Amino acid sequence: MTSGDMTSADMTSADLDIRRRRAAYRAAHRGTKEMDWLLGRYASARLDQMSEAELTEFEDLLSAPDPDLQVWIMDPSAVPDDRYAALVRVLRVFHQLPQS
């Protein structure tokens, strides 16, 4: 199939696959082993099922600095705004961390 034969749904699917691969790499190569493990394991388990909106939210979270992310995951009350709070809760549940 050439790019001229691809439908918009095929291109959207291909775009999502590329974004998922990039997010998986970014999640597993953070620069600290702790964050590589926390985010990388979650990404490996969940990226394939994420909708486009969920993927966008995860990509946004990945843009935050490691020190901030680590504090938010370890202490969800430290999350500065609601934009990340739900995803931080999901990460904590995934890693079976106590809920506060």
Write the layout of secondary structure elements.
Elements: H1 8-28, H2 33-46, H3 52-62, H4 66-74, H5 82-94
Helix pairs in contact: 1-2, 1-3
Walk me through the structure:
This protein is mostly helical and about 100 residues long. The chain has one domain (about 5-95): DNA polymerase, domain 1. The protein has 5 helices and no strands. The protein has helices at about 10-30, 35-45, 50-60, 65-75, 80-95. The radius of gyration is 15 Å and the shape is elongated.
In short:
With 100 residues, the protein is mainly alpha-helical. 68% of the residues lie in helices and 0% in strands. It has five helices and no strands.
- In one word, what is the shape? elongated
Strand content: under 5%
Mean pLDDT metric? 90
Q: What is the total domain count?
A: 1
Question: Got a strand count?
Answer: 0
Given the helix and strand composition, which structural class is it? Answer: mainly alpha
The CATH homology group name: Flavinator of succinate dehydrogenase
Class in CATH? Answer: Mainly Alpha
Give short descriptive properties of this protein:
100 residues, mainly alpha
